[in-house]
Amino acid sequence: MDSQGGGNLQNVLSISTAGNNRYLLHFNSLNSLTQWTAGIRLAMFEHATLQEAYTGSLIAGKGRMLNNIGVIMERTKFKSEDWARVRFGAGTPWRRCWCVITPPDEKEYQKLQKTLKKRPIYDRSTPVPKGDIKFYETRKVTKKTRPIATINDAYSAYAIYPQSKPLIDQSTL
Question: Per residue in 135-170, is it b (16+ CB within 10 Å) or e — as a string?
Answer without folding.
Answer: bbeeeeeeeeeebeeeeeeeeeebbebeeeeeeeee
